[in-house]
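pasting input
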Amino acid sequence: MASIMFYLLSLILLTATLLCIFQRNPVHAVLYLVLGFFSLAIMFYLLGAPLVAAWEVIVYAGAIMVLFLFIIMMLGLAPQDRPEGPGWQRWLPFVILMAAVLACTLVIIALDPAATAQGEPYSLGPQDFGEALFGKYALAVQVVSFQLLFAAVGAYNLGRIQRGKGKP
Amino acid sequence: MNTAIITVILTLCKLALIFGVVLSMAAYLVLAERKLLGRMQLRYGPNRIGPGGMIQPLCDVIKLITKEDFIPERADKWLFLFAPGLTALTALLSFAVVPFAPPVTLFGQELPMVVCDLNIGLLYLLGLSSLGVYGVVLGGWASNSKYSLLGAMRSLGQLLSYELAMGLALIPVVLSAKSFSITEIVMSQATLPNLVKHPLAFLIFMISVAAESKRTPFDMPEAENEIVGGFHTEYSGMRFGLFFVGEYINLIVIGAMVTVLFLGGWHGPLLPPVAWFLIKVLFVAFVFIWARGSMPRPRYDQLMRFGWTVMIPIGVINILLTAAVLLAINS
């Protein structure tokens, strides 16, 4: 039952992400990406990590994508017309991505043909998650958060009002 | 197998019960709000249909259903049709994790009085409340109208800002209950409600949920005198009704959230637990109606500045203080 759901969700996830890439209307693209995040969240839940699933919905679908929508609406992005240039330029990125996915699959099959490396069913509660994040990986988490600080300082520097110049 | 069937049937019964109670409560909250606001403004409010205007909600529904369902030209048709339902749906789904009474024993097995006692129930509530914005925003964007778009953008900014403050206000509650499960949080308030333990968090939470739900001191997304109707300018008939009902279901959701997180849930003397739960929920709803009747609307920039420079710093300081005190008590 769980494996059927897993494959169904993977199908939805891949379709939604592809549609997100190929949509000309930016708002529709964001919506497909949100659908992808939902199926990803349910997959995390099936894999025994309910907390990660909840963060996936709250942070990605609920905050970051909302921010994307805000920017799209503020800039008033219109649906784009077909881009210029020869046809192969439009399809090449897709072909390269697909080839990479296929190559990875081949490597996995070659390394472990009988799929024996299946782990034990594992459940990750909120407490284990917190201990791993702020105990074992505390340094890594802090380094990554510094990156957010750099981004915030950079954004402030770009957007600040300079004396005598007015708004940039 | 037999117990599994009984569990499924009982879950369906609970779902149907919650659905019916919440929808009829939402319909009568509309009436209650109109009557209370009327009394606060020295008039009677609806009192013509039925004894004391009790059949008014039914008439409103008939009126909304029989109106024309208008779709503006060049609107994004599917999103336009889909958005109001999304608002009502996210509000209704929140009730899945709200426990309204202690577990009872029925047919020889313990039956929890909640549809699904998730161990991340609180995060589920937060996730749904942050998804609620999609209905409003998509409705406003799909209408292809300037006023709708302005309303949608206002609600986006407002929700993003106040969601942070709301999350920060909930961390002290989780710290003292040591769990994300709503049932555990209610159990931890058996002697003393969180309102007494975390008064500052309660205050931040009340203000930020009012902003999240676009209740009146913070109803900039639909400020009538500036942007007509905001995100629902172009909606008519029952689709407008869905936005409207969604707002009142949201009011009940907020009442339930405040009740289980800060007012001690079903705990209370003398009366049965369910009665206490309903009394507390309705009291919180009354407080929000009262605020609507007595407070003017701030400007939008004032609202944003207040959110980022007052609410969030106080929320962070509150978490630090609570954590320090809890650490001192436990060690």
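fyi The radius of gyration of chain B is 21 Å.
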